[in-house]
Amino acid sequence: MDTTVRHGRANKNTRAATQRHQTRPATSHLTEGDQGTVEVSIVLPCYNEQEHVLAEIERITSAMDASVYPYEVLAIDDASTDETLEILRQAEARFPHLRVLAFANNGGSGTARRIGTQQARGQIVVWTDADMSYPNDRIPELVEILDKDENIDQVVGARTSEQGTHKVLRVPAKWVIRKIAERLTNTKIPDLNSGLRAFRREVSLPYLRLLPAGFSCVTTITMAFLHNQHAIHYMPIGYAKRSGTSKFHFVKDAYRYILQVLRMVMYFNPLKVLMPPSLALLAVGTGKAAYDVISQPVRLASNTLLILLTGLIIASLALLADLIVRSRTN
Ligand SMILES: Nc1nc2c(ncn2[C@@H]2O[C@H](COP(=O)(O)OP(=O)(O)OP(=O)(O)O)[C@@H](O)[C@H]2O)c(=O)[nH]1
Ligand SMILES: [Mg+2]
Question: Would you tell me how many other CB atoms lie within 10 Å of the CB of residue 56?
Answer without folding.
Answer: 23
